[in-house]
Fold this protein.
Amino acid sequence: MISNPLQNSIQYIKSVGPKRAESFRKIGLNTIKDLLFYFPYKHLDRSSILNTSDVVKIASGGFDGEVTILGKVIESELIRYGKKQLLKVQFKDQHGYFECVWFQGIKFFKDTFHSGDTYAISSKPVLTRYGHLQFAHPDFDKISKEESDEFINTGKIIPYYTLPKALKDKHIGDLSIRKIVRNAVESYAELLEETLPEDIVHSNKLFNLSEAVKSIHFPESLENLNKAFLRFKYEELFYLEILVALRKSKIKDFNKGISFVTNKERIKEFLDNLPFDLTDDQIKVLHEIRLDMESPKPMNRLLQGDVGSGKTIVALIAMLLCVNHGYQAVLMVPTEILADQHFKNITKLLDFNQDYKLSLLIGGQSKKQREKNLADISSGDSQIIIGTHALFEDIIQFNKLGLVIIDEQHRFGVAQRAKLIDKGILPDVLVMTATPIPRTLSMTVYGDLDVSVILNKPKNRKEIKTIVRSESKLPEIYNFIKTKAFEGNQSFIVYPLVEESEKLDLKSVLEEYEALKSTYFSDIKVGLIHGKMKWQQKEEVMLDFADKKYDVLFSTTVIEVGIDIPNANIIVINDAFRFGLSQLHQLRGRVGRGNEQAYCILIAKEGMAAKSSKMNFNFEYLSKQQIEKNKSAIRLNSMIKYSSGFDLSEIDLKLRGPGDLFGTKQSGLPELKFVSITEDTEIIIKAKEDAFKIIHNDPTLNNHSNQLIKKNLLKNFKENLQYYNIA
């Protein structure tokens, strides 16, 4: 045995031993400390338990959620009907009887339930035609007689642990694991070293670490369980915010950036040549960017702006500020077709002044063109460089890189971004996104970035009318598209698949293009674009569409990002329930870029279309199960109710969680296990406030009072620290 008892093998815990220790090792639990942090996945408390008479009442009222009920097994019965069979297990509580049925895995369940055993049953309740209370294929947890008596008489809370196969193979079940963990907690929890500074624990009224560990395993009350969760949520956020604050401090305080001098005459010359006026929001954001660029500290700014709000023109002016000071500026975008469009549009906007030199760097260019671009970039002849991930290649040498602008940045990982930033001295960084980032995420994953927001779109833009229609309405919609085509308007028709699929009952763009071009759309011009085309082919189609060579463009989601066709005013999205909310909003943003009224028509199956149009959801009154069940309808209904990407991003966060939305795994920050980004706003604000204050006062964590934080960072977050100086 070793000097620190917590680092001893798990085998020394009572009821474990060498053989069982091997099973624990297989699931990553080697030491006593590992077991102390093997937390329950749920807790059973008396306040959440209903009795049979309560459940019958709510089931007869049409309740659609899950309930938990405690009962003792009376008997089980195997019932055959035709060639099939089912298992029915009869239970009893103090108020009556209920039954559970299984149609699959019958042998296993038959051997599981024995007369006299007590179980907590969780599932959706139904009343059979005979009036019996029934649960089909429920979740179930066994409870010992002693636990059951304590639970019923004293309200003791029972923890439940995940039981992987390796443990079950050694006959470690619910009762055994609770006994083993209890032995560990009672003997060793007091030996845990505190991981948060004492003043932080006191000022936030948190449990100390050993109290929190005891209470998350075997809480004396529901209040204590909630306090344990609060402690672990706070600690998780505190160290994440420390990393974010360190990252921001490293860039701002320890690195000397470029103090750009604004050439007001050349900026005025550019603005005078624009065919439109900037919005108030664009002017405000440009002022924030200019102050950053004139400062000797490196800019590290996030620019949020809804689809079509005019972020690109702001980015271009920032690039001119950089170029006018003798530096190179880079604009990196997600796709070749978008890079090419930006290159053409920016070239046109800078046509008034031949001094500005641009290069486009994307895959698929000829060897001669590519070599010329690389030489121009290396020599400094090229001032504005536009490209995709090709900008990451080691062969590319910048002459004097001063500004990096990254469009739709959550598509790129932190490590990838670092590779580009390392090519300059320490360039200013402007990150742009049309997927607005919810407030809680901007405080965590993006907390090291200064934030600018463009809320208002250019004047004279009308709000896009969004409706949900069933597939039976498609003939009417096609006639509407044709009528608008004869008036000079263009339309997109979007499909989720390129080709027909046997596995998915979804429409494909190739199949529908062939079917409709010779029927409904035989007297108008139609085009086709999809992801399997080379980018040059896609670009040719988009240019033809922009030149009005097509009235209707059949497409997959390749048009999702950034394509600008001012004359396109209708977008029809087939099988709309298959798309995420952010994606639907991005697709909607392809239309309504001119002064005409635009329409977004979402197509769904009959029932879904009716449900989505009538729905009036409120997250406060929806259970997790109801949200999960109605996700698609909520998404489509949100598109009707909200035109703002900021509103939709908050809903999307509640539906999907942060990881799916913004790739938090690529952010160089630890994953959140306890915290709910949507529900724990107050804890997020407090943890950020505390962490940023500490780093502001002691950026290197050298003060004696902060040694505990430094020790824990080096011990538990070493992998994350490699990114802490990258935005």
